[in-house]
Amino acid sequence: MNVLAVVVLYRCAPAESRTMASLEECFRSEPRMDRTWQVLIFDNSEGRQPAGNVQLPCQFHHRFNGRNLGVAAAYNAALELAVNAKIDWLLLLDQDSLLPKDFGSKLNSAINQVQEDARVCAIAPRVFCRGRQVSPTSIRFCHTMRPVENPAEGVYEGPVNGIGSGLAVRVSFLRGIGGFDPEFWLDFLDHWLFEMIAKGGKKVFLTSTRLQHELSIVDYDAYMTPSRYSNILKYESIFFKRCKSKSENAAYPLKLILRAIKQFFIVRNKRYSKMTLCQSWRALRWHLW
């Protein structure tokens, strides 16, 4: 059993990343992690961020990209490294996740439990943003999601979705699907990945581990920007066209209209509601024509 953790940074030095700080604490709390773990810091910033003061006892790699190619490029680079180093599991992390001290030891324990279970290709923690559970979620019609409240630790039998950061995935499974789809370079890559897991007949092992994560869609006024939301809408539409049924695509415009109404009443910046309504019209035109 071995793990490669990839931490994707953007305009953030390792010393400024909540993920890096908490990951270093995990290594201090579980000294044996350095025997089986490696870390790749993948910097997507336009300018190189200083990599000094990284306090990791394990082997770690630092790559500077020079332009923002999103998380897909970073994950594929990590996958290539994992394959070459004969590493079994790839742990996906962004820069804004807060890992508990026992994250590493609990993940190692979960890996040991599922190592011989060919059905399981991913291990997912419980992810919270501002006290709200955002992962894992059960999937219903038209990709409507509801939190899996207080899940029992073990293999989840139904279709499930979740946040990419904190998710551990078998390298063999990722190789089997050809790596991460570069079309979903930034947004909806995690949705695509869970869709591939379900379509491949594989399962996700849910753990009781709780981590904190900053998620832009939880608070549009605090975290979202119009340009980012435009990108989310674009790749949500692509995701529906490529991965969802005809009936779900037919219902997609209504899903957007309901979201726009909700945004109008709870988000101060009304531009997001207008953007969602415009996207619902584009989705309706695509479905009809």
Walk me through the structure.
The chain has two domains: 3-216, Spore Coat Polysaccharide Biosynthesis Protein SpsA, Chain A; 220-288, no CATH class. It contains ten helices and 13 strands. It has helices at residues 18-29, 33-36, 70-84, 103-114, 171-176, 189-199, 220-223, 226-243, 246-266, 271-288, and strands spanning 3-9, 37-43, 59-64, 89-94, 97-98, 120-129, 132-135, 137-140, 144-147, 154-156, 160-161, 168-170, 203-213. The strands form two sheets. Strands 1, 2, 3, 4, 5, 6, 7, 10, 12 and 13 form a ten-stranded mixed β-sheet that branches. A three-stranded antiparallel β-sheet has the order 9-8-11. A hairpin with a 3-residue loop joins strand 8 (137-140) and strand 9. The protein is globular and about 55 Å long.
